[in-house]
Amino acid sequence: MQTTALLNRRYDLAVAWDWEYDVDFMRLLRRVAQEHHVSLIEITAYNLDAVLDALRSDMMSVASLLDRASDAGETFLPLRRFITEHGDTKNIRLINPYAASERTMDKAVMHYELIKAGVSVPHTVVLPSYQQAERLDGALIADLSRLKVPFVLKPANGGGGEGVVKSVFSPYEAAARREEIPWDNYLAQEKIRPKYLYGWRCWFRAYYLFGGVELAWWDDERHIYQPVSERDKTLIGVENFVAVMTTIARVSQMDFFSSELVLTTDGRLVAVDYVNDPIDLRLKSTHFDGLPDALALRIAEKIIEFAKQNRTDAPLS
């Protein structure tokens, strides 16, 4: 796309994306945007330079930006730098501010902040990286020994399940496994036991969407989603999920993210994965382990609703 094609255009929403599996959701988002008369521009590797030129020269304006690309590689870093340096002066509302998103990536930081905010989280021992301490001191070994085995071990800055070990059987195994990602701190956490309803594990993906909350059943063992019905919401106490997600949003200062919440056998509602950003938006109609299509549609509608509320009719420079 050439810069001239972008001249004198005002967009309510820009979405930067680079993941091939986002294609179905972007098709859905385009449809919803058109239905609600919200102008949308997609920023891809093919038009990134042209978009940046148009933004710099004030020949194009964007009211809201959802960046699903700059965390995945270097291609979109110029966009990230531009928004960081000029987003405020250009009146671009960034969905999930970069500073907040970067802070929430560290599970150890979020763990302690959520405890202070009153969110129930797994009992956790935070371990230094292998590069910081090849051997754990006696105090940490003693702390690990108090965790019931097996326990879970996960890197503090990992995502998508990378580096997670679901069953660790000794403090010394945990200490050794840190070498797999030697630069990162680790969280050793109690294994959470979900209660069962209809024979399903009460493990959920919860989505915070600009002030609203949506839920889906999520089998943490098979990674399969199921819709949450109105009857389900009554049985599980949906208001408690909303309260937890609202607290996580307040602590994290994020607009749009997902968390894993579990109803346990002892009656707790526990956050086990705190803030996921960007979230996986693959659709179940094209991926067996994707989101229910109806939920994906509600997410698209919430994004467009936010863009519609945030848009401006101010003239271009």
Give an account of the 3D structure.
By secondary structure, the chain is an alpha+beta fold. The chain folds into three domains: 3-96 and 302-310, Rossmann fold (3-Layer(aba) Sandwich), CATH 3.40.50; 123-190, Dna Ligase, domain 1 (2-Layer Sandwich); 194-276. 33% of the residues lie in helices and 25% in strands. The protein contains ten helices and 15 strands. The chain has helices spanning 23-35, 48-56, 77-86, 98-104, 107-116, 138-145, 171-177, 230-236, 238-252, 293-310; strands at residues 9-16, 40-43, 60-67, 93-95, 124-127, 151-155, 165-168, 186-190, 196-197, 200-201, 203-209, 212-219, 224-227, 256-263, 269-276. A five-stranded antiparallel β-sheet has the order 13-12-11-14-15. It has a four-stranded parallel β-sheet with strand order 2-1-3-4, sandwiched between helices. It has a four-stranded antiparallel β-sheet with strand order 5-8-6-7, sandwiched between helices. Strand 9 and strand 10 (200-201) form a beta hairpin. Helix 1 (23-35) crosses helix 10 (293-310). The chain is globular and about 65 Å long. The relative contact order is 0.15. The mean pLDDT is 93.
What are the main properties of this structure?
317 residues; alpha+beta; Rossmann fold; Dna Ligase, domain 1; 3 domains; 4-stranded parallel sheet; 10 helices
Briefly say what this structure is:
The chain is an alpha+beta fold. A hairpin with a 2-residue loop joins strand 11 and strand 12. Helix 1 crosses helix 10.
